[in-house]
Design brief:
The structure is a homodimer. By secondary structure, chain A is α/β, with parallel strands linked by helices. In chain A, 43% of the residues lie in helices and 13% in strands. Chain A has helices at 3-11, 19-31, 35-50, 67-70, 85-93, 121-130, 144-156, 182-190; strands at 52-53, 60-61, 75-82, 99-103, 135-138, 163-166. In chain A, the strands form 2 sheets. A 4-stranded parallel beta sheet of chain A has the order 4-3-5-6. In chain A, strands 1-2 form a two-stranded antiparallel ribbon. In chain A, α5 links the parallel β3 (75-82) and β4. The longest helix of chain A has 16 residues, at 35-50. In chain A, 27% of the residues are buried. At the A-B interface, α1, α2, α3 and α5 of A face α1, α2, α3 and α5 of B.
Chain lengths: 195, 195
C-alpha cells in the first residue's frame, strides 16, 4: 500500500471520518508545510506515555492523582459520576460544578456484553466508604444504557447515608418546543419546576 | 499546554474538524491501543519524504514520473486538466477516462490573490507544445473560479489545433428535478442531449 492510501486507511479508523473525509484530510496534510504532520506525529507518539488514568477518579491526566482530585478548594462532599473521561471536561466547561468526579469507563449494556463488573463501580463504593461524600450526582447520558446504569448504582447505594441525584432532562436552552421530541418534552413536563 | 490540549489544537487545524470534533478524536485516540497513534505518527512523519509532485503532471506520487504519466496503455492524445491532485483520484475512481492529467494547483481567484501565474498554466502550454494532445478536457469545479479558469485557458489555446471540452453540468444521477437548483437545471436544459 502506498503512503497516501496508508494514511487514508489509518485516518478512516477515527470516529465520524469516512473514506472520503479521510482522503480530504490526507491531501490537506500533504499540502500543509512539513512542520504540521511532524508536529502531529510528535504529539501522537508521546500521547500514551504522557497521559495515564488518575488512580483516584479514572480520568485521563498527566499527573497522578489528577489536578481535580488534588485541588483542596473543591468540595469533597460532592461526587459526580460520568461515563467517560471527556465528560469531565464537558462538565468542567459548564463552570457550574465544584465537586469531584468518578469515571465509570462505560455504561451497563448487556447486548454489548458490558456488565457492572466491567465498570469502576467497585472503586466507586470504596471511595464512598472512605470519603465523606454527601451527594452523588449521576451525570450519565439520558439513554437506555445511561438510565439502566443510574438505576443500578442507585439500588446499590440505597442503604448508604447519601443523596443520589441525576442531571435534569428537558428542553435545551434556546431550543424550540415544536422541535422537542415526545420523550424529552414528557420528561420536561414531569420535571417542571416552580417559578 | 498539556498533551491532550496540544493534540486537540493540532487536530482542529484539519479542514472540517472543529474544536468539539477534535476533542472527540483525541479521546478516541487516547482510548485506542498504543499501536494506533504510533502507526498514525509513523505515517505522518514519513509522508512528506515519500510523496512528492510528479514532474510531468503535478499530481502527488511516490515515484516520479507518476504511474499514470508513465503508463504506455493510456491515451496520450487526451489531457484532463484538474484543480488539485485529489481530483485525479476522483476521476480515476469513475473508471471512464483513460487519458492523462494535468494538475493546475488551484483556480484563478482575484479576490484571494490567485492569478494565472500562480498556477501551472505555463507547464501546461509546454506539454501541449511537445505532446500530441488532440483533446483538452477542463475538469474544473462548476463554480465562478472554475468557470473563470476554464475560460482563461480556452482563450489561451484558441490558435492551437486541439479540441477543448469541459465536463457536463446537469442533474446528478439518482437526483430529483424538484431539488435541483435553478442554475443547475438551466445548464442541464441548455446542455440537453438527443436520445
Amino acid at each position: 500500500m502506498n503512503a497516501i492510501d496508508n494514511l487514508v486507511t489509518l485516518l478512516s479508523r477515527l470516529p465520524g471520518i469516512g473514506k472520503k473525509s479521510a482522503q480530504r484530510l490526507a491531501y490537506h496534510i500533504l499540502e500543509s508545510p512539513r512542520s504540521y504532520p511532524l508536529a502531529l506525529a510528535g504529539s501522537l507518539s508521546t500521547l500514551h506515555d504522557s497521559v495515564r488514568r488518575c488512580s483516584i477518579c479514572g480520568a485521563f491526566t498527566e499527573s497522578d492523582p489528577c489536578p481535580i482530585c488534588t485541588d483542596p478548594s473543591r468540595d469533597a462532599s460532592l461526587l459526580c459520576v460520568v461515563e467517560r473521561s471527556q465528560d469531565v471536561r464537558v462538565i468542567e466547561d459548564a463552570r457550574e460544578y465544584r465537586g469531584r468526579f468518578h469515571v465509570l469507563g462505560g455504561l451497563i449494556a448487556p447486548l454489548d456484553g458490558v456488565g457492572p463488573d466491567d465498570l469502576t463501580i467497585g472503586t466507586l463504593l470504596t471511595r464512598l466508604g472512605n470519603d465523606r461524600v454527601r451527594e452523588l450526582i449521576l451525570a450519565l447520558n439520558p439513554t437506555v444504557e445511561g438510565d439502566t446504569t443510574s438505576l443500578y448504582i442507585q439500588n446499590l447505594l440505597k442503604s448508604m447515608p447519601l443523596t443520589v441525584t441525576r442531571l435534569a432532562s428537558g428542553l435545551p436552552v434556546g431550543g424550540d418546543l415544536e422541535y422537542a421530541d415526545r420523550l424529552t418534552l414528557a420528561r420536561s413536563i414531569r420535571g417542571r419546576i416552580p417559578m
